[in-house]
């Protein structure tokens, strides 16, 4: 769970509120990388592309424009989901972000 979510949950509890909406939103956000990766796989399949060794381009791995920080980015999880299908994952903005998680996983740069 992101630090900002933990902070909001803590403050909601301190105020005597129940943080269900915050936690539900976090659960939805956490499930999005798998969902989006699934859409990509379904899209490849729908147009008759072989899934294994397909090339997928992620247009920027950061959450904000012109920011090199990938710590808050859901794309690390999305890349992992796609790699489970032996998909080659590429990013157009490789100069903007910390490539540590990609290089450690042997991803293409």
Q: Would you mind describing this structure in some detail?
A:
This protein has 109 residues and is mainly α. The chain has one domain (3-104): 3-Layer(aba) Sandwich (Rossmann fold), CATH 3.40.50. The chain is 49% helix and 7% strand. The protein has four helices and two strands. The chain has helices spanning 3-14, 20-46, 75-83, 100-104; strands at 55-58, 88-91. The protein has a two-stranded parallel ribbon with strand order 1-2. Helix 2 (20-46) packs across helix 3 (75-83). It is elongated.
Helix and strand arrangement:
Layout: H1 3-14, H2 20-46, E1 55-58, H3 75-83, E2 88-91, H4 100-104
Parallel strand pairs: 1-2
Give the strand tally: 2
Note the total helix count. Answer: 4
Portion of residues within helices = 40-55%
The coarse overall form would be elongated
CATH topology: Rossmann fold
The overall number of domains is: 1
Question: What structural category characterises the helix and strand content?
Answer: mainly alpha
Architecture per CATH nomenclature, i.e. the level-2 architecture: 3-Layer(aba) Sandwich
Low-confidence stretches: none
Order of adjacent strands in the largest pleated sheet: 1-2
């Amino acid at each position: 769970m992101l630090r900002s979510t933990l902070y909001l949950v803590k403050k909601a509890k301190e105020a005597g509120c129940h943080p269900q909406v915050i936690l539900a939103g976090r659960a939805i956000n956490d499930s999005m990388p798998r969902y989006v990766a699934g859409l990509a796989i379904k899209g490849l399949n729908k147009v008759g592309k072989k899934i294994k060794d397909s090339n997928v381009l992620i247009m920027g791995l950061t959450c904000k424009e012109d920011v090199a920080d990938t710590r808050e980015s859901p794309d690390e999880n999305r890349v992992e989901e796609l790699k489970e299908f032996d998909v080659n994952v590429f990013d157009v903005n490789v100069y903007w972000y910390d490539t540590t998680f990609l290089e450690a996983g042997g991803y293409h740069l």
